[in-house]
Amino acid sequence: MNHALLARRGTAVLALHYQNEVLHEDGRIRVGLAPGDPRRAAVIAGAARMLAWGRAHELPMVFVRIAFRPGHVDVIRNCKVFRDVVRLDAAVDGTWGAEFLPALAPRAQAPREFTLTHQRVGAFHGTSLRDLLDALKVRRLVVGGVSTHSVVATSVAAAADAGYELAVVADACASADPALHEYALRSMELVADVCRMDQLEGLPAAGGEHD
Predict the structure, then answer these.
(1) HSE on the CB side for 145, CA within 13 Å?
(2) What's the CA gap between 8 and 208, in Å, rounded?
(3) Residue 201: enclosing H or E segment and its boundaries?
(4) From edge to edge, which strands make up the β-sheet containing 165-174?
(5) Nearest to residue 146, comparing CAs of 125, 168, 163?
(6) What is the pTM of this model?
(7) φ and ψ at residue 173, rounded to 5 degrees
(8) What is the pLDDT along the chain (211 residues), one digit of tens a residue?
(9) Are residues 141 and 159 in contact, defined by beta-carbon separation less than 8 angstroms?
């Protein structure tokens, strides 16, 4: 993909699971990094750069979080990832863990920043994400999130099937296991342009370009 296209209209930023429960050292389903692990600080910094880039180019920003009702009555328990959420009593709506990490949170008064909540692995299943992107006339997505091999990879596959052009920002993604992170990035190269923030920063401002 021509990276210059990513700063033009028709592009949106999709930020996945930048939540306290996932990224904070005290989170219950964090990416599995030990306290003080530099990879946590690195992915937070990469995600912050991605969000700042999207705002600088006045792109729509869609923030997706995972959250469940108290008691986890709305959790399907067909696989380990969801059973672990129940076991850890994690990602309960209305609690600190379900909130966005303050450094990576949407701006409440920003008219083009949107928040969606889901209860499955991918961001498209059971949400209005596709309808929102269609209403915004989005054709390209710049994606970051945690974990790379889970919500990011699943959402990217669904977006590719839906016909979107995709760029995955590698340094705005992370997995507890670096090998899984790298494998997921390589796998997504089949359907997305895997890039780094330094490839996107420095692009000319959108400047009212249309396509």
Answers:
(1) 29
(2) 8
(3) none
(4) 113-118, 61-66, 11-16, 140-146, 165-174, 193-195
(5) 168
(6) 0.93
(7) -125, 160
(8) 777 778 788 999 999 999 999 999 899 887 767 777 888 999 999 999 999 999 999 999 999 999 999 999 999 999 888 999 999 999 999 999 999 999 999 998 899 999 999 999 999 999 999 999 999 999 999 999 999 999 999 999 999 999 999 999 999 999 989 999 999 999 999 999 999 999 998 766 544 444 5
(9) yes
Q: Report residue 3: phi and psi, to 5°.
A: -60, -30
Exposure b/e, 35-64, CB count within 10 A at least 16 = b: eeeebbeebbebbbbbbebbeebebbbbbb
Q: Which two tokens stand for residue 177?
A: 């296991």
Which token pair is 63?
């923030």
The token pair that represents 156 in the structure block: 């990217």
